[in-house]
Predict the 3D structure of the following.
Amino acid sequence: MWRLHQFPLCPFSRAVRFALAEKGVVVELVPVTPWGGRDALVAMNPAGQTPVLENGTLTLCDSMAILEYFDETVERAPLLGAGAAERAEGRRLAAWFAQRFYGEVTAPLLRERMYKRVVTREPPDGNAIRLAGRAAEVQLQYLEYLLDHNRWLAGPTFGVADVVAAAQISVADYLMGIEWGGHEAARTWYSALKSRPSFRSLLSDRMEGVRPPPHYDQLDF
Ligand SMILES: N[C@@H](CCC(=O)N[C@@H](CS)C(=O)NCC(=O)O)C(=O)O
């Protein structure tokens, strides 16, 4: 049995949970945070980061490495497209959302609205939240541009770019960082993902001490 060491608002862990559920791989969730019990995490992953996936024999770290491992070993629900060009575009966009969206939107929101609340008990920095909101707006515009050209983010089929982007957006949305107004194409795309059974368990998960807005787990938002 695979065990995923993660916490509910880790967007990289969410990407793994979403992808493995699509593929029908069952995992047991083991709660761990990078800011507490760090020694145990570092013993599994020298980077001291979540997610870590292990089955007692094999330990896999880094969400993209985990997704690629399962895409190579489980045929169902392929995440990387059939052609080399589509695979390259999927990887490019997955890196974009894991680096740019995370760095400019998810990470500041996690720091201001989760970490400071739950761990350090400091007030959030309103300016950092405003900047994250502006960055989210630019990211949603880019999402709309991509959806103007393709049914899914990287091409005609659902894949790794959709998984990684939706995982980041779900955390930003939980932390009230997404203003959906004026982004109909992005909203339609996200609503389709929200309705997938593989995404539902993410939406029902809660981080202790941090409540999402009412629209967060609704299909009509
Ligand atoms: N490249 C890694 C990034 C993972 C990551 O940044 N995880 C965050 C939690 S969401 C973390 O553990 N941060 C603690 C740290 O970097 O020390 C992946 O894709 O798995």
